[in-house]
Design goal:
The protein contains twelve helices and ten strands. The protein is of the alpha/beta class and 345 residues long. Strand 5, helix 5 and strand 6 form a beta-alpha-beta unit. The longest helix has 50 residues.
């Protein structure tokens, strides 16, 4: 009888033990499930943050150029009025911006329309190394070719022969613009003493008398030029109609443009050529973020103009005029709402 009772007690203990193990297993499974759910929730939160652009970077240009000044205003407007957060950062210019985006270091970038075409087609700055994983967001304004000098005797491009001339920072599109302009007047890089400087460095070199002239391709007024004009008499070298027509025939991405005299306090208007300032985005940026980028700009033009003069040049027709590179789907969505169709990939 005692043995039977002992056996029954042992069986009960084993059942209780098994039940206890089963309970622990259930709790462990429950814990694992909760952890998995938490991980999934965290991942979804991260994905949501990415989709709203909380870490998106916008490469612009040098800190004394229009790209950075205007780009900072745009970034602030987009971040303040949409769920997309944009940070404008300085850079070496158009080529550097495309390369930074290709490496994933930035999601948006300012580029000259000609450099954008070079990259997409694999020519000039991108000879044999085409970059095609980006799309057009919008063309925003025209960038004038400004040939700045403090020497009143330099009146034409032909007068640059034998002079020390800055023809743009390495990695910028200014170099090819300078070569194009010189070429239109029968000059080459060998006909000048070239230096390769950014806008700010060029202005300082002009200030110190180290160079005779500088090519600056940016929306006028440009901070570097405006700053120089406060301490030195400056002059802009204009282009004549005959050479402009010849240039455009060979390089159709240029268009005629005039820099008004009051832009820098000049004696008269200056005729020149210009290329477009275009914002591009990596193809993998979400449609929502690109839509927010474009809509925040064109729905708040007055506010932007109050902060930067280039806002007055924003125009939907011009924004949708790019043909060299297809538009991002997010940009196309906004423009379609305004009755404008653009090509997409």
């Amino acid at each position: 009888m005692k043995r039977k009772l002992f056996a029954m007690l042992m069986a009960a203990a084993m059942i209780a033990g098994l039940t206890g193990c089963s309970g622990s297993s259930d709790k462990a499974a429950e814990t694992d499930t909760k952890e998995e759910a938490a991980a999934e929730e965290a991942e979804e939160t991260a994905d949501t943050a990415a989709s709203t652009g909380s870490e998106l970077k916008f490469t612009t240009g040098g800190d004394q150029g229009t790209y950075y000044g205007f780009g900072s205003v745009l970034a602030g407007q987009i971040s303040g009025s949409t769920g997309t957060k944009i940070t404008a950062i300085t850079s070496g210019g158009s080529q550097a911006n495309i390369e930074a985006m290709e490496m994933g270091d930035a999601q948006f970038g300012f580029v000259q329309s000609d450099v954008m075409a070079y990259a997409y087609q694999g020519t000039n700055l991108f000879d044999g190394a085409a970059v095609t994983d980006f799309s057009t967001v919008a063309a925003l304004y025209m960038e004038q070719v400004q040939i700045v000098t403090c020497n009143p005797d330099i009146k034409t491009v032909a007068d640059l022969k034998g002079k020390n001339v800055s023809i743009g920072a390495p990695g910028s599109g200014v170099y090819f613009n300078a070569i194009d302009i010189l070429g239109a007047y029968g000059l080459t890089e060998d006909d000048i003493t070239p230096t390769y400087e950014s806008f700010g460095d060029s202005a300082e070199s002009l200030q110190d008398g180290k160079i005779d002239a500088a090519f600056i391709v940016a929306g006028a007024p440009t901070t570097a030029v405006t700053s120089l004009a406060t301490s030195k008499d400056i002059y802009l070298v204009g282009l004549d109609s005959e050479h402009i027509d010849s240039l455009i025939a060979d390089c159709p991405y240029y268009s005629k443009n005039v820099i008004a005299a009051d832009t820098y306090g000049l004696a008269e208007d200056v005729e020149t050529v210009a290329v477009g300032a275009v914002v591009i985005a990596r193809d993998d940026v979400s449609e929502e973020d690109v839509y927010n980028f474009v809509s925040a700009i064109f729905e708040n033009q007055e506010t932007i103009t109050n902060a930067h003069a280039k806002g007055a040049e924003l125009d939907l027709e011009f924004a949708t005029s790019v043909t060299a590179v297809p538009y991002h789907a997010g940009a196309a969505k906004y423009f379609a709402e305004k009755g404008l169709d653009v090509s997409t990939k």
